[in-house]
Write a structure and sequence with these properties.
312 residues; 7-stranded antiparallel sheet; 1 helix; globular; mainly beta
Length: 312
């Protein structure tokens, strides 16, 4: 079932079945504002209660307007000139209003990112009988030049002490030394750093973490919460998103207590640096990416075979 509502003048498309309900905001680049498991009566996404839903103009500061939910960053993270194009903070998508169509039990959102010339399209549907959101993407280079870019998923989650990140990544590195509980001594064997398991969420103690992670054996990244009772995560094509970024604020970042799961197509933060290392997405004119991502928000099962994600 799909319905339409408004919040603070922003249109929200509400998709729901017997297991899950999610809300998508076309005017905000297709942001997911809610992922709610109906059977568990649990909201998984973190939302900044001090900010209302509001469309921002291109070039707006992302951190000031960080409301949580699930965004996507494309074609960049930090403001940067790439391929001769001036890209704004946290990319173009989050400030781009998308067109949408509702057909049967699917929502299709689409738009053109004006600076990069990337054509963006995603089709959102729910999995029957599972608390899962299926997202089919098509990203095409509609410009006349080669485009080097970052495409990053960005799910801000509610967290509590003892929650833990689940990933098969083998190696980690601190993104910025000023945004970490630990000294930056180069790559390390994830998750152990300075005698601490960095995958485990500490109390709200005024610190933060920001890691690159790579070497994962599978395209999956999730957060285990509620004393191993719940799990939220992504499944995706590892060829499209070969890297994972993990940002978590335990109070240091504007007082927020949240962790952000970020499957990413590029590393490091600078697209120009990633391009020089051949570690970013590249599309020539007319080329496109077609891929699917699954978002799941579920109870963990102890019955082997009942839950196909049991081993993850």
């Amino acid at each position: 079932m799909i319905s339409v509502k408004e919040e603070s003048g922003i249109t929200l498309l509400v998709l729901e079945n017997e297991e899950i309900r999610t809300e998508v905001a076309p005017q905000l680049g297709g942001k997911f504002t809610s992922v709610y498991n109906k059977l568990l009566e649990k909201e998984f996404l973190w939302r900044n209660a001090s900010l209302r839903l509001e469309k921002q103009e291109p070039g707006a500061d992302y951190d000031t307007n960080f409301r949580g939910g699930i965004d996507e960053l494309i074609p960049n993270d930090i403001p940067e000139t790439v391929d001769g194009n001036n890209y704004p903070d946290h990319g173009e998508l989050w400030t781009t209003a998308l067109d949408y169509k509702i057909k049967d039990d699917q929502v299709m959102l689409s738009g053109l990112l004006p600076e990069s010339g990337l054509s963006y399209q995603k089709t959102v549907s729910l999995t029957t009988g599972r608390p899962e959101i299926e997202i089919a993407y098509r990203i095409r280079n509609a410009s006349q030049g080669v485009r080097h870019f970052l495409w990053k998923l960005h799910a801000a989650l509610q967290i509590s002490e003892g929650d833990r990140l689940r990933t098969t990544a083998s190696t980690g590195r601190i993104v910025y030394s000023g945004s970490s509980r630990f000294p930056d001594n180069g790559p390390f064997a994830w998750p152990e750093i300075e005698g601490t398991d960095a995958s485990v969420v500490p109390p709200q103690n005024g610190t933060m973490d920001f890691f690159y992670l790579w070497g994962a054996a599978e395209g999956a990244m999730s957060m285990i919460s509620g004393g191993n009772a719940f799990r939220f995560g992504y499944r995706y094509d590892r060829a499209v998103f070969p890297y994972q970024w993990y940002f978590a604020s335990y109070g240091q970042f504007r007082g927020h207590y949240t962790a952000i799961l970020e499957p990413a197509s590029a590393m490091p933060v600078s697209v120009n640096e990633a391009a020089a290392l051949e570690q970013c997405t590249v599309l020539r004119p007319g080329e496109e990416i077609n891929t699917k991502v699954t978002v799941f928000a579920e109870a963990l099962s102890t019955e082997i075979g009942k839950n196909p994600l049991q081993a993850r």
